[in-house]
Structures are given as C-alpha cells and as structure tokens.
Design goal:
six-stranded antiparallel beta sheet; alpha+beta; 3 helices; 131 residues; globular
C-alpha cells in the first residue's frame, strides 16, 4: 500500500525533539520564516499508531493540527481527535467545524496539500523519487 504523506508544523510539537522520531522527508521554512513545515511519511500499516503519537505530541498552547493523505483518504490530527475524510471537500465539514471550535481560522482549514501534485508543488520534490 502507498504511504501517507503529511504536514506537521515543527512549532506545533510540545517537544521539538519528537520530530526526530518521525520519518521526515523534507523540512521547509515558510516565506516569513516563522514556521517550519515537516513533510512526514507514514507507512499505511503504521498509520493509526503514528497518528496517535502525533496527536499526543501536539502542543496545547495554540490550536494546532496536522494532516496526512494517501490517494483519496485524508486524516486530520487535532490534539483531542483524529478525523478521517476524503479529498472531496464535501466530506470536510466535521474537521472544519472542529477546527473552528478550537479557534483555527477557516482559511487555515484548507488541508492543503492533499494530493500528490499539490505536495510536489509545495515542496518542489517528486514523491516517485522517495518511494
């Protein structure tokens, strides 16, 4: 099965050293330099275990989330919940509603990237070269 890829913001982790326990494929700093995006790969047979570890590692100081995708599947990890959905935006209602209750601005609940093409554009890499 294809792995899941996702984005974890380094600053969202209560302990930055936790990032060293993940399969980080690439790091990328946002344009203004305030956040570091970690491109993380998770083997599909370890998805539940790894998402739980990430959920527990998210800091409680701000409303953070991480998200992962493979094919048409998306998993959104909040500190208190993991929500499964698809790449069809109509399936995002529960995740958006949950994020809004945490105070996450709606424009940040776009779960981008959520396709191979978007991820390759965002990180200027080829996922085919990673597998």
């Amino acid at each position: 099965m294809a792995p899941f890829y996702g984005i974890v913001i380094e600053q969202s982790l209560a302990d930055p050293a936790f990032a060293e326990t993940l399969d980080v494929v690439q790091r990328k700093r946002d344009p203004d330099g305030s956040w570091v995006f970690l491109l993380v790969r998770i083997a599909s047979d370890r998805l539940f275990t790894e998402l739980e570890r990430i959920r527990e590692a998210l800091a409680g100081d701000q409303p953070w989330y991480a998200h992962f995708f493979s094919g048409e599947k998306i998993a959104v990890v909040f500190p208190e919940a993991i929500i499964s959905m698809t790449t069809d935006a109509a399936s995002w209602e529960a995740a958006i509603a949950h994020g809004l209750t945490l105070g996450i601005p709606r424009e940040q609940l776009d779960f981008w990237p959520h396709s191979t093409e978007q991820l390759e554009e965002a990180f200027t890499i080829s996922l085919a070269d990673l597998d």
